[in-house]
Amino acid sequence: MRGSIALTTALLTLLAPLVFGQDALTFALKSQQLLAENDKVRVIRFAPSPGDKTPMHSHPDYVVYVIKGGKVKYTLPDGTSTVSELKAGQVLIKGPVVHADEALDAVETIIVELKK
């Protein structure tokens, strides 16, 4: 019994980044800049060029303010993908998500992540 618990714990530790996604800022991409952070929120500027990709990552509850609109392709862990067209001035309130993204156009957003 103890061995199976240890094995399960080890597998969950190894697979957690694949299931839950990593923090996008750990990739140190030029398209992302941490603007502010405290114990309640984190504010990120996301400004990719066409073709820029962010590997699979996660967000808690978050709000997106679109500064410069354009198309972004989002891919979920199960491989399904959608293309969203962001509009300048748009505000999106989103729940927790795990996804990868690819900018199809140059876009600029401000992401405010809400910490629990």
Kindly state the percentage of residues in helix. 10-25%
The CATH architecture assignment turns out to be Sandwich
**Alpha plus pi helix count:** 1
Total number of strands? 10
Distance between the termini: 34 Å
Order of helices and strands: HEEEEEEEEEE
- How many domains would you count in the coordinates? 1
Low-pLDDT stretches = 7-19
Strand content: over 45%
The secondary structure category is: alpha+beta
* Biggest beta sheet summary: 5 strands, mixed
- What integer value in Å does the Rg equal? 16 Å
Class in CATH? Answer: Mainly Beta
CATH fold group: Jelly Rolls
Shape: globular
| Order of adjacent strands in the largest pleated sheet | 1-4-9-6-7
**Would you identify the CATH H-level superfamily?**
Jelly Rolls
The pLDDT mean sits at: 87
Please render the helix and strand layout as text.
Layout lengths: L1 H19 L1 E2 L8 E6 L3 E6 L6 E7 L2 E7 L1 E6 L5 E6 L4 E4 L2 E7 L4 E7 L2
Parallel strand pairs: 1-4
Antiparallel strand pairs: 2-3, 3-10, 4-9, 5-8, 5-10, 6-7, 6-9
Q: What features would you describe in this structure?
A:
- This protein is α+β, with helices and mostly antiparallel strands and 116 residues long.
- It has one domain: Sandwich (Jelly Rolls).
- 16% of the residues lie in helices and 50% in strands.
- The chain contains 1 helix and 10 strands, in the order αββββββββββ.
- It has one helix at 2-20; strands at residues 22-23, 32-37, 41-46, 53-59, 62-68, 70-75, 81-86, 91-94, 97-103, 108-114.
- The strands form 2 sheets. Strands 1-4-9-6-7 form a 5-stranded mixed β-sheet. Strands 2-3-10-5-8 form a 5-stranded antiparallel β-sheet, with no helix packed on it.
- A hairpin with a 3-residue loop joins strand 2 (32-37) and strand 3 (41-46).
- The protein is globular.
